Amino acid sequence: MAAVQDGQMELDAEKETKPEILSDGTSNLSGNTASGTLSSSPLTAAPAGGAPKMEDQQTLIAVLQFLKRNKLTDSVEILRREAGLGEDQEDSQATDGSGGGKGDVDGGDANSLLSRVSITSAAAPQSMCDSPLMFMLSAAGADDQPDVSVVLSAYSQQGDPSLYQVYYSGLKNFIESVLDCHRAELSQLFYPLFVHMYLELVYNNHENEAKAFFEKFSGDQECYYQDDLRVLCGLTKKEHLKGNEVLLDFRTSRFVLRISRDSYQLLKRHLQERHNNQIWNIIQEHLYIDIFDGMPRSKSQIDSMSGSLAGEGKREVNKAKVFHGLLKEPEIEVPLDDEDDEAENEEGKPKKKKTKKDSLGSKSKKQDPNAPQQNRIPLPELKDSDKLDKIMYMKESTKRIRLGPENLPSICFYTFLNAYQGLTAVDFTDDSSLLAGGFADSTVRVWSVTPKKLRKVKSAADLNMIDKESDDVLERIMDEKTASESKILYGHSGPVYGVSFSPDRNYLLSSSEDGTVRLWSLLTFTCLVGYKGHNYPVWDTQFSPFGYYFVSGGHDRVARLWATDHYQPLRIFAGHLADVTCTRFHPNSNYVATGSTDRTIRLWDVLNGNCVRIFTGHKGPIHSLAFSPNGKFLASGSTDGRVLLWDIGHGLMIGELKGHTDTIYSLKFSRDGEILASGSMDNTVRLWNSMKAFDEVETDDFTATTGHIHLPDNSQELLLGTYHSKSTPVTHLHFTRRNLLLAAGAYNSQ
Amino acid sequence: MAEERRQKLCSVILPTESMKAMAESVGVGSLQEDSCLALSEEVSYRIKEIAQDALKFMHHGKRRKLTTGDIDHALKLKNVEPLYGFQSQEFIPFRFASGGGRELHFYEEKEVDLSDIINTPLPRVPLDVSLKAHWLSIDGVQPAIPENPPPVPKEQQKTDSTEPLKAVKPGQEEEGSIQTKGQGASSAEVKGSSAKMVPLKMRMKPRSTHELSVEQQLYYKEITEACVGSCEAKRAVCVCNKCYLFLFQVRVNVVQNNLALLIYLMRMVKALMDNPTLYLEKYLHELIPAVVTCIVSKQLCLRPDVDNHWALRDFAARLMAQSCKTFSTTTNNIQSRITKTFTKALLDDKTQWTTRYGCIAGLAELGHDVIKTLIIPRLSVEGARIKAVMDGPVVSNIDKIGADHVQSLLLKHCASVVAKTRPLPDMVDQYKVDYGYLGTMLCSHVVKARAQAAFQAQTVNRTTLTITQPRPTLSVSQSGLSTSSGSRAPSIIKVPSSLTLMSTRPGTPTQPSPPATKYIVMATSAGAASTQQVRSVLHIHRVHMIVHSKVISVPRILIATPGLISPNIKVFKYTFILQ
Lengths: 750, 579
Fold this sequence. Notes:
The complex is a heterodimer. Chain A contains 25 helices and 33 strands. In chain A, the strands form 10 sheets. In chain A, strands 6-7-8-11 form a 4-stranded antiparallel β-sheet, with no helix packed on it. Chain A has a 4-stranded antiparallel β-sheet with strand order 12-13-14-15, with no helix packed on it. Chain A is 36% helix and 25% strand. In chain A, a hairpin with a 7-residue loop joins strand 18 and strand 19. Helix content of chain B is 51%, strand content 6%. In chain B, helix 14 (353-364) packs parallel to helix 17 (397-421) and helix 15 crosses helix 17. In chain B, the strands form 2 sheets. Chain B has a 3-stranded mixed β-sheet with strand order 4-6-5, covered by helices on one side. A two-stranded antiparallel ribbon of chain B has the order 1-2. In chain B, a hairpin with a 2-residue loop joins strand 1 and strand 2. Chain B has helices spanning 2-11, 16-25, 33-60, 68-77, 114-119, 154-168, 175-197, 206-228, 244-256, 259-274, 284-296, 309-327, 334-347, 353-364, 368-375, 379-391, 397-421, 428-435, 439-459, 462-467; strands at residues 94-99, 102-107, 130-137, 533-537, 557-560, 571-577. Chains A and B meet through helix 1, helix 11, helix 12, strand 5 and strand 7 of A and helix 1, helix 2, helix 3, helix 4 and strand 3 of B. Chain B: Its main location: nucleus.
């Protein structure tokens, strides 16, 4: 009990420490802005500029002010020059601002900046629909008011608290009395209205009314909102509201509903007749109603898309063009087949003389119309060793087993014994030669799963002795004495939640509870860099398929794009309302997908940091993502045990795979994309016929225009196999280049 | 229901008394009721918040249980100093105390003496993490290896193993006890069978091990009773198709030297083999060792000098030959493996007479070619050995009997082969040169065999033809034991000593009336035959498959073995009705 009291005091102390942390984050942020615009980063293509819009300018000014206050004069100069802002312009704003809130707490200020930036970046793709709220926020921010109170002040309008129940039940009765076809659509209003009205009551200190309201109507909400309701029910005071970022974001972002025009008219007429201003105000201010023409959607259609914390994605959001095609493979000279044997004898040393261009590789792959420009984002050049690896890859892929419903893959299961429930993350290298495990005891362990042992490079003194001209210099630099089957990497100070190998197998990334992402060398088995920036637990990290870049996502609700040679992030993807739980690179490296606890999946453009897709439909936190090898589709798995399939080009949900009974922690497509493997906490690996799932959707295209999906319930037909392990949750899945499925998990003896 | 739970969740707030108690524990004496309420609400909210954050850590730690570590991390997230100190593996023991109208739950913090901790021996170092690979699936099929869970769900196994038991004793036991025992049986069988093949399959709990043996005893008893017992009331006796039981029983009986039971068991094996609807291929690895044991075991009965274990050996040898014919394939190679085993034992000088007899019988049953290539070349050697026993000083009666049996066995089998292969004329001297000690006797046997063959060829030429036909199409009754070994001449049915073995080829589908039965009479006390009869209905998978009125064939073998079986069964008529 002493501890609880300690905690209490610490909570107060937190207020003092917070500004420091936040300023850290913001300075990173400014670094990002600078590097992005200055083209000092490898991303040479600068974000599309154009005349800064009103709110952009406001943001810039705010950033400038912040920099000034922290005496970062150089950055101020650079930013001002880049943004083309006159000093006077900024000064006038600054004086305004200082006049407004000189005595303000620093923390509140920083807070406002952060959230404002996140808001604007979230709003960027939807810049066409300029919302008055957004404007108001930015303006308020410029006034140096603490953002929190601005957001909340929207609630300060007074209504009779006792009437809230009447209002709500009035609407409820109305919705229940309308025609069936409209009822399902209008029922979507219940949840956001309920939450907003409840929060409004709480904000205005009507605690008892709030409780009564909650008790009366919480039972009406859809079951998949239970987790949110659990959070809500604990929250009964205005003070609580201030500390809860998730609910603050719920306020700042507008809950999006899709309603047909007929249903909307019906609702509008009803509310106007009743002069039900309270509800009308909430709808006006906090909801975004996306009105479409045509038939109202059915209950099942709505259910399949709803469930996220912020409502459905707006249709415009998913209309942006996504270049989901693959990049052209670099032309690599491949030795002829007939000397395959020879080449295998002297591994990786194909004779250049007798080679010819791989006709398959260059001719058949015409430029995909959906593919991005080759240099849309700068990619690292291929090294000689990468080329060798590509040749190996091509050779292996000729021996690939063609999978299908009649030809299921073999599964090799790697069980971690004696892990004492400490295994938190696993990754395989692409060539399946190495296996890395992240553990709760802060260690990262690397195993070699081939007979080839892990060796360190010799020490500097020994390296000097080596004849650098010799052919096998790469072999000579290795220290035979250090050969072992596994190596342990120490460095983190908290559980390791994500590990990822670089494509060239020279590096390993790990992300941890301690807020850092670490880069390890697999030549020396030491830590090279610790990337700091998240400050909170980093739930996942992944290397780009071409190396060099990597992405990380964590509890701070943003995903960050890094380059291995920059200690600050290149891009910050902000927009999720809750933790970013998993991050995946698109096969062409131009996009990043993130899954979140707010039950949405977002696709981000690496080039400009815009959010180009929002996928809603999961009913629980998303814990696994996988792109199909052709880059067209995305699969996602969540705690509710369902796998959803998405068409990236059209921005549509195209399939739902039911069968698992627990959280799905791993998803992987086979190398040709015919089979989707899913591994879950329920100790099973399931194989799904993804080809069939994709084909069936492509045949009917009415959905593409309306954006309304109608999913066939054919999970059982698509399920090709279920394989139970012995109380071993499946943590990771990987297809080898020959389409053998590798699974990994820790044996749980209890 | 969910609604109720949610409402309950909503209202859960720490009682204000707790706040008071806590305040007192840190020295704040009088706390206002209002402050208590405000505090408790605040604390409740913060606790919930921390719990919700801790859940995130649990999910990302890929666990199902929330640990204290998760809470620590959640506290860290909120910038709260985590709790320091020892982590308890067990549940934190809350103690309850009441007094003065107040109830308290408290956490008993013991004062720990540091020197105690220092002096306690270090705990065992936990094993390091290791990696182990196995096949979860091969081309879409999950292999049945110990690393994978059993392919058949528990429920299925349970019903599989409980049903035979239920059928044996319908209504005799209470439902509940059957259920529990059935469960034991199912796990027992799974574990038993797997343990035999792969020792490390499952971690057996001591309790179930105990149940297992009891259950197996019970099961064994049931089966034994059903097969051997004399209960007319038992109309349906289920024979479980798990043949390893045979091996088990054979082992038991060999150890107990219970000849009678072994004979029954062998007959059961025969019946199983004759049943075309059973697929014994899978159980051959269980069956064959059992049968071979009955052929070559050193001792099969308590009194080897008196008891006629030779007949059992002959019968088992014939069974072996039959199974070789039926099941031998290029992959399992049963016949060559068996032949190798027998030959090896035969070539060994130290082999006892009983085993030697078994080996020769086993080889002889495999056909003329085997006799020609493996036995006839050995005739002179074996003859010398027999001579040494017969003519030498009397060592023991048992050896003598053994040698006698081997001699007659050799003569019987070799005579027919020699008669076919050796050209006329049969000169005794020449035979002596060729076959040594046994030459004289062999010569006379060969002469007899030739005469008999000539006679049979005249009278029933058909016999040899029909014998070779597969059993279901047999249409002619013929002499000879009901094995499908066509190469065996009828004369070899004569068993050494005073036995006459005969059998019938009874009813055919077109001839439903009871066929003429011939009896195999063993020993001399056939007159005392009783009419005890057990009708075993072999049913394979389910009880409802039992009765088909169409009787296809009823082989009957009657063996009387005086003085061995319990007094009330002198003659045992054993009938299998095959579906």
